[in-house]
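sorry to bug you again but im stuck and you know this stuff better than me. what follows is a protein written twice so to speak, once as letters and once as structure tokens for the fold. id like you to explain what the token line says about the fold, in plain words if possible. anything you notice is useful, everything is just below.
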Amino acid sequence: MSIIQSVHAREVLDSRGNPTIDVEVRLSDGARGSAMVPSGASTGSHEAVELQDGDPARYHGRGMLRAISRVHDVICPALRGVSPFDQSQVDGMLMELDGTPDKSRLGANSILGTSMATARAAAASLGVPLYRYLSQGSANLLPIPMFNVLNGGRHARGSTDFQEFMVVPMSASTFAEALRAGAEIHNRLLRLIEDRYMYTGVGDEGGFAPSLPSNAHAVEILLQAIQTAGYEPGRDCGIALDAAATELHRRGTYHLAREGIWLTSEELVEYYVDWVEQYPIISIEDGLSEDDWDGWELLYRRLGSKVQLVGDDLYTTNVDRIARGVQTQASNSVLIKPNQIGTLTETLEAIRLTRQAGWSTVMSHRSGETEDTTIADLSVAWETGQIKSGAPCRSERLAKYNRILKIEQEMGADARYAGRDALRHAAV
């Protein structure tokens, strides 16, 4: 069997023009695999550490030369001669080389880049797509997409308080139909915004970012876009929110600047309850801040039987934090981001624990993305059932959706589309 011959890293740019790392693993049989690592803007404090240079004279301190040196000087010598076909062994070695709980010695970026590139090289060596390699050929479930068509918060300053307003096509019978619905709604939304507000920018994730007078206006114009595109809100399409509430949390309360109000955890929960009663909201992500466990438990008691409640900053794809959420009934879903934890093996462990609890999983991109499509293959290989990769706009977002489209076509009659069934915690 082929073995790892070399591991090489280079500095590339992400969708915000910031440096990130691209790792390439070469095998003794000539096969190679590469992977680029994304970066978040709204990051949880419990995430694994992205190693940056800190040199203000170069890329404002965000350079990747330190991470690259870790790959060349530490990771490559250790992995040379190792089999790429045992992913858990490779990832275990990476974690042991780092030796810290937050990946701060080598950096989660250098570790994840190596982990993903190794899997890609192994798949290339066997001549199979990545999703087939990671699932050993058994996976055939395609995820329902969540399109972030209105951006706010840290992703679009001057727009809304909440970070993401997503449309979720529920009545489509294939991924291709869902992608078409998302694109059509996105197009109609632009026309409505231009008619009403004259001008709009585009946020980090490809969604529009008009300056709206309130958060409710975002929901209302999105509902109108769904209708004018020929779909029925609540039946054909639902709305998903990512409040990114950690970014709104100030001294024990939540500040909604657009509304000019400060809310306690209890008041913010009731704010969501009112919205769920008024609008076809099927999913709320990061409704409370990353350490507001009492608030999360209250949110679950009030809405857990009606809405998918997704923890992102709360869990950071970390099995210990997910286990606490399961024990305390803090949510019913987990957002899965490989770069929050650092290796494919740990990411899969988080998915398995979430499934054991009967919760749903959502594979997710980051706001600073690249053209790398690994998460698309992961969503299929590990049958997450849901994926969010931004709006149907900008190539770094569309690359993931187009990859799943190709997988669906490749599978043919064997493909199963998760669709509405993936939203089992929402009353749809």
Notes: The chain has 13 helices and 18 strands. The chain has a mean pLDDT of 95. The longest helix spans residues 175-197. Residues 4-127 form a domain with the Enolase-like; domain 1 fold (CATH 3.30.390.10).
